[in-house]
Design brief:
- Helices cover 3% and strands 51% of the residues.
- It has 2 helices and 51 strands.
- About 3% of the residues have low confidence.
């Protein structure tokens, strides 16, 4: 009988990895339920796994009390971690990816340095075998599940036990919610998973509906679902917000519907919000009422990877995984024209301010310039051998820019197709790129967590923006180019002063990596979109403080001033 030991969501949210007692690690497509790759095959019945947060490292266990660290793209063995004296039953990366924690039948939990492979901390106190382990989102707490019917919380720095959750039978697995306020546990004989309050230790909810114990549990990135895997060769998806039967998936894995928001922007003088979902659904929202006014589908070419709306708000261009860009009528949802010119997935589309031209870039390394009224490219920019992650067209339509996996941002002459400038300053892939409204600057964001501002004419670096803790996935400007906007995989949006490079304001609330950001024409509002939600933010500090002062009885404290990036010493509330 094959038993599913563990599973992990891939960072893109489109696939998962599973491991079992057959000694294999397999990759599955969530949308189709099909196996897409067999990553690893070993002669072991104790193959447990976890993925590093950036998806670059894979950790696995074996029958000989060892842990192996692999580079996922090449499956090169980096380290073998040794020290446990009995079976290693679960492994988990810390959120920063620098440490790994393991649970063992030797009754210990151990912390390892990923870079060196050395043991850095040991947690002892369980009275029986330790089955499961997890690390809190901030990396400060470790949870361990044991055969002694307890889940225990440990302080990473001191190694001391903080809290204990007592169950009715052997605890097999545990996981933290994305916000770090809740943990979920799975036990040996209970046909359910249990949610606990981290601070009080109280049982919040026991979700019934399984037919076997849960040897593995994990929260979805938005915290709405729990994925569990059991000894009956079934994976179950539980909704944590309602009491209902779980959706059950047998191996091969089943379907999860994920509505990734690929683009969000304000239209109709900021009275409406237009969102484009990865499934190809376009929705027009009333900003005042938060209600959908109309929607239509654009998924004729498969998953929609990016989109852009014309200044008149009457047409929409979508980029798809089938290598085709399409022009749509926003009012009636009719397909107007198709643009074919890429060999494979198009990753990005950028539209000129007048709506007459647009540029696309794809996995084939090609960049294409189009006029909106012709189905053939007006200009081709070839020569790249790596995927193009983002593209931009200058507002004066003189230049085309592309961000690519080789760590270089390129600038071409739109008329001649000749390379004008190469911007080399990022340490790793460049993910995002945008021209300023006056076409004088190009801004780039990369996997090195940094955004850079460049002079188009000279190619010189003008300003660097440091502060994000993960890759900068989207960039943008205010209309007067005094401010720039960045969105990151660290789930935050930041507003920066161009002159100083300092953060003016930080917007926190997203639970997933950012996919889009844009600012209203008057600069008072900002719209940001992640894999599931679009947020509308006020950027006018005067309006925000007026609302705040109507609620709070006293002026802001020093801590509140720091939190809201208020740098002067004047009274906020008169």
């Amino acid at each position: 009988m094959h038993i599913l030991h563990s599973a992990a969501f891939m960072p893109d949210g489109e696939s998962i990895l599973t491991s079992g007692n057959d000694g294999t690690v397999r990759q599955w497509d969530i949308a189709t339920g099909q196996e897409t790759a067999r990553i690893l095959e070993q002669d072991t019945s104790n193959l447990k796994l976890d993925l590093s947060p950036d998806g670059q490292l894979l950790a696995t266990s074996d029958d000989n009390q060892r842990i192996h660290l692999w580079r996922l793209d090449t499956m090169e063995l980096l380290h073998t971690l040794e020290g446990h004296t009995d079976l290693v039953n679960q492994i988990a990366f810390a959120p920063d990816g620098r440490t790994l924690v393991s649970a063992s039948f030797d009754r210990t939990v151990r912390l390892w340095n990923v870079g060196t492979g050395n043991e850095t901390q040991r947690f002892e106190g369980h009275a029986a075998r330790v089955f499961g382990v997890a690390v809190s989102p901030d990396g400060s707490i470790i949870a361990s599940a044991s055969d002694d019917s307890t889940v225990r919380l440990w302080h990473v720095e001191t190694g001391e036990e903080i809290r204990r959750f007592i169950g009715t039978d052997s605890m097999l697995a545990t996981a933290f919610s994305p916000d770090g306020q809740t943990i979920v546990t799975g036990s040996l004989r209970s046909n359910s998973v249990t949610l606990w309050d981290l601070e009080t230790g109280d049982k919040l909810h026991e979700i019934q509906g399984g037919t076997s114990g849960a040897g593995f549990v994990a929260f979805s990135p938005d915290g709405q679902f729990v994925l569990s895997a059991g000894t009956d060769n079934m994976a179950r998806l539980w909704n944590t917000t309602v009491e209902s039967e779980p959706q059950i998936y047998s191996l091969p894995f089943g379907t999860i519907h994920a509505e990734a928001i690929m683009m969000a922007t304000l239209v109709d003088e900021d009275q409406q919000l237009l969102t484009v979902l990865g499934e190809g659904i376009v929705r027009i929202w009333n900003v005042a009422t938060n209600q959908i006014e109309r929607d239509f589908r654009t998924d004729v070419g498969g998953f929609v990877t990016d989109a852009a709306v014309t200044p008149q708000n009457d047409k929409l261009i979508t980029a798809s995984e089938d290598g085709t860009a399409r022009l749509w009528n926003v009012f009636n949802g009719e397909l107007i024209r198709e643009f074919e010119g890429h060999d494979g997935r198009i990753n990005a589309v950028s539209l000129a301010p007048d709506g007459g031209m647009f540029v696309t870039g794809g996995n084939d390394g090609a960049v294409r310039l189009w006029t909106i009224n012709a189905s053939m490219p007006a200009q081709r920019f070839d020569g790249l051998t790596v995927p193009v992650n983002d593209v931009a067209l200058s507002h004066d339509k003189h230049f085309v820019a592309a961000a690519s996996d080789d760590g270089i941002a390129r600038l071409w002459n739109a008329r001649t197709g000749a390379v004008a400038t190469r911007f080399t300053g990022h340490d790793g892939a460049v993910l995002s790129i945008a021209f300023s409204p006056d076409s004088r600057y190009v801004m780039t964001g990369g996997v090195d967590n940094v955004a850079l501002l460049w002079d188009v004419e000279t190619g010189e670096l003008i300003q660097s923006f440091f502060g994000h803790t993960d890759a900068v996935s989207v960039v943008g400007y205010s209309s007067d180019v005094q401010l720039v906007i960045t969105g990151s995989r660290d789930q935050s949006v930041r507003l920066w002063d161009v002159a100083t490079g300092e953060v003016i304001r930080q917007f926190v609330g997203h639970k997933q990596p950012l996919l889009s950001v844009s600012m209203s024409n008057d600069g008072d509002s900002l719209i940001s979109g992640d894999l599931r939600y679009a947020y509308l933010w006020r950027t006018n500090l005067a309006e925000i403080t007026t609302l705040a002062c109507q609620i709070i009885p006293n002026d802001l404290t020093l801590e509140e001033r720091r939190r809201y990036s208020i740098t002067d010493n004047d009274n906020v509330c008169a």
